[in-house]
Amino acid sequence: MAQSNGRGAMGFIVGALVVVVAGIVWYIYSGGEMPGQNDAEIKIDLPDGN
């Protein structure tokens, strides 16, 4: 029974490592920029109401 629990924990750790490595590969592939870093600035000038 203890061996089964150890396999589950090992599978969880391996799965977490796969997710982390996939995230790093995606970060490098996307040019090293976090999502939302290239947001455009929006400026709205309203005319005077006179």
Fill in the keyword field for this structure.
50 residues, 1 helix, elongated, mainly alpha, 56% helix
Structural class: mainly alpha
Strand content: under 5%
Mean pLDDT: 80
Q: How many strand segments? A: 0
- Rounded to an integer in angstroms, the radius of gyration calculated over CA atoms is 24 Å
Largest sheet properties: none
Q: Write down the overall geometry.
A: elongated
Separate helix tally: 1
Q: Please give the alpha-carbon distance between the first and last residues.
A: 82 Å
> What is the string of helix and strand elements?
H
Low-confidence stretches: none
Helix content: 55-70%
Would you spell out the secondary-structure blueprint of this structure?
Blueprint: H1 2-29
Can you give a write-up of this model?
This protein has one helix at 2-29. The protein is built from one helix and no strands. The relative contact order is 0.07. Helix content is 56%, strand content 0%. The protein has 50 residues and is an all-alpha fold.
Task: Give a summary of the structure in a few sentences.
Helix content is 56%, strand content 0%.
